[in-house]
Design brief:
Number of strands: 18
Strand content: 25-35%
CATH superfamily of the largest domain: Gcn5-related N-acetyltransferase (GNAT)
Radius of gyration: 21 Å
Order of helices and strands: EEEEEHEEEHEEEEHHHEEEHEHEEH
Shape: globular
CATH topology of the largest domain: Aminopeptidase
Distance between the termini: 21 Å
Oligomer: single chain
Number of domains: 2
CATH architecture of the largest domain: 3-Layer(aba) Sandwich
Structural class: alpha+beta
CATH class of the largest domain: Alpha Beta
């Protein structure tokens, strides 16, 4: 029954130690305090009983802890409205001073795990290679984009913008591993790869991103806006649909369970970052069976078709936002 997990806040980077001390009680500790939180269960609904307000972050950590500790059981959490004072997104869930929080609603709540674009901001329309699209946001090297704990691998997954001064050595090492360059074909010198990253950081249609397990760099992603990408002509993408390329550079972090969690995090980040993103696309080489097979058991992903880029035969893989959350991800 006793189980411990460690959560880290996206916004403050504070660590929280969580211990399930009995079948209906949590102990939540950080550097400054430790509190107990009792709860009761009724079918798939958990009710927080005696948690006192410390901060919105503390309350959110308690909620996330229950969803992580009981991923097959907890689908709704009920708590006092007074336990949240700043996160107004829960106001529509209030009934008689209680917040009735479904897990899928919580999963879609921005700024808990990810940097979120304000969808109400008016965006300037620009053109790239004859394609009209909204001007894309800018990001700084090293900027944190996403951070969330995944119980199935007992690991916190993070995405942050690449920083050449910190990441070039790993980037060079990864691209010169045979199982990477067979598909990426970037087994180049360190100065050449430094230029590749520098050019990527200047390109506003794509974000060069480092994947981390428990704050340790283990892979590389490029999150791009699909409409103005080379992929754009091959599908009818909306203004805010995204795509990605990725590699996992550390062999110890490969395997189905790890990659499953990474794909859940990849979709979760993109759908949280901009709520107008309806599709996430991948376009691996059609013969990259190791990657393509991972989507077979994700109902939110589908293989749409195969098509020809000038440099490769590709498979178009699509993840649908609504299906992702309806199927219970990222906890499913």
């Amino acid at each position: 029954m006793y189980k411990k997990i460690r959560l880290q806040s996206f916004s403050t980077q504070h660590f929280y130690e969580i211990e399930l001390t009995s079948s209906n009680q949590l102990q939540i500790s950080n550097n400054s305090q430790s509190v107990y939180c009792s709860f009761k269960r009724s079918t798939n609904t958990f009710t927080l009983l005696d948690l006192e307000y410390i901060s919105d972050e503390f309350t959110l950590i308690a909620i996330e802890s229950i969803f992580n500790l009981f991923p097959k059981e907890a689908f709704t959490i009920i708590f006092k409205k007074s336990l949240i004072k700043q996160n107004i997104s829960f106001n529509e869930l209030v009934d008689n001073d209680l917040v009735i929080l479904p897990r899928d609603f919580f999963a879609k709540t921005g700024n808990i795990w990810a940097k979120k674009v304000d969808p109400t901001l008016e965006l300037k329309e620009i053109s790239t290679a004859g394609v009209t699209h909204p001007e894309r946001p800018s990001y700084d090297p090293g900027e944190l984009l996403y951070k969330k704990y995944y119980s199935e691998i007992d690991t916190t997954i993070s995405f942050r913008v690449a920083d050449i001064s910190k990441d070039l050595d790993n980037f060079h090492e990864w691209h010169n591993k045979k199982f990477i360059y067979n598909f990426w074909e970037l087994n180049k010198s360190k100065p050449e790869l430094e230029k590749y990253l520098a050019d990527g950081l200047k390109d506003k249609h794509s974000i060069p991103t480092i994947l981390e397990f428990n704050n340790k760099s283990i892979g590389y992603f490029e999150f791009y806006w699909a409409k103005e990408d080379r992929l754009g002509p091959f599908y009818n993408f909306s203004d805010f649909d995204r795509g990605f390329h990725f590699l996992i550079g550390e062999e110890s972090c490969l395997g189905r369970v790890n990659v499953d969690a990474i794909l859940k995090a990849t979709s979760h980040y993109t759908f949280l970052n901009d709520e107008r993103t309806e599709l996430l696309a991948g376009e691996p080489r059609s013969d990259n069976k190791r990657i393509i097979r991972y989507i077979d058991h994700f109902e939110c992903w589908r293989k749409e078709k195969e098509f020809d880029f000038p440099h490769k035969r590709a498979a178009l893989l699509l993840c649908d936002r609504d299906t992702y959350f309806q199927e219970g991800y990222p906890w499913n």
